[in-house]
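Notebook entry, cofactor series.
This is the third protein in the set we're modelling with a bound small molecule. For this one the ligand is flavin-adenine dinucleotide. I'm keeping the input format identical across the series so the outputs can be compared line by line later. Sequence and SMILES below, as received.
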Amino acid sequence: MRVRAHAALDAFNTFHVPAQCRYLVTLEQPDDVPVFLDDARFANLPRLILGGGSNVLFVADYPGVVMHIALPGWKWLDDLGDDRLLRVGAGEGWHAVVRRSVESGHGGLENLSLIPGRVGAAPVQNIGAYGVELKDRFESLQAIDLNDGAERMFSRDDCQFAYRHSRFKAEPGRWLIASVVLRLPKRWEPRLDYPGVEAVLAGKAATPARVSDAIVAIRREKLPDPADIGNAGSFFKNPIVSAKRHDELKACCPDMPGFILADGRVKLSAAWLIERCGLRGLRDGDAGVYPGHALVLVNHGRASGADLWRLATRVRATVAERFEVLLEPEPLIVPNAMPSQMSSHGHR
Ligand SMILES: Cc1cc2nc3c(=O)[nH]c(=O)nc-3n(C[C@H](O)[C@H](O)[C@H](O)COP(=O)(O)OP(=O)(O)OC[C@H]3O[C@@H](n4cnc5c(N)ncnc54)[C@H](O)[C@@H]3O)c2cc1C
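Returned structure with ligand:
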């Protein structure tokens, strides 16, 4: 366990905004967790669990302890019927795990290539891309209840996965995810239905590694690399509205895209809504809406978290005024100073 007091977090968030915390504690092995919980220095301070910092926005300094998760681990477990089980430590890099699995010929994770961050955060918002979500490849996870230090296993049902959501997002700071067991099909079938994937393969036979390469190429084309320009990927979730509300919206905007869900509700495109408001490329100082993708907010250089939050609030207000649809942010806003301001779903 490594402890730094009054640590800078600039390098621990992919927006690269300046922020400090009272303590930054890096947990490097499972035994560090009980040691951390017994340490009197941290007993009465608020705690934030942090992986790669690619889905957080620090709008101010954090007055408590940031627990930086660096727990390692990679182990193939006994097969389960038609599936192979892979247990990985929460501190492993997500994309590195994807690449290691596809390069050893195991398919299943390739559509989730190049998502930044660490394994432990993947269940928190049930990461998803190109038609696949973590829940589709998930078997179980081991977490530690930070209230009492007890270990607990979570099955897929226990996690209550939904679109960019899980029980861990609903109970922030309670569960420290220590490891995740992934379930990879032995009989692999590529998912190529997402626009553009098949075209990048250009007639070559699909293998897990080739599909992963294709996804990486498409993502590099579309999304800014946080190493070059600070961002946290999609800043807003796609809002979900009732069928009735969708009909009303279609009546005034016939070209509005919508994806009908199993329960009859409709998922709208947040990017389309923002774009239609003319906000793509908007800049307020160094905080901006990425010119190449309306859903991504970027730090053009020296924006603070508060600057980015102000821009996010402006984008949200503009979309709400034009379409009466509320956008909900995807990243965790830290410190959680404005929970009620942005926590509602996209229903009218
Ligand atoms: C360029 C870019 C592209 C992206 N594309 C996608 C995408 O396609 N799909 C997608 O779903 N996301 C995407 N994201 C968002 C982000 O990468 C994912 O949400 C990722 O899983 C976050 O991982 P992290 O380790 O950086 O988490 P962090 O940002 O460190 O934390 C995110 C949340 O998880 C919690 N958390 C982290 N680790 C643990 C743990 N071990 N136990 C309990 N809680 C924990 C934190 O408290 C916080 O609430 C993108 C981000 C960027 C910058």
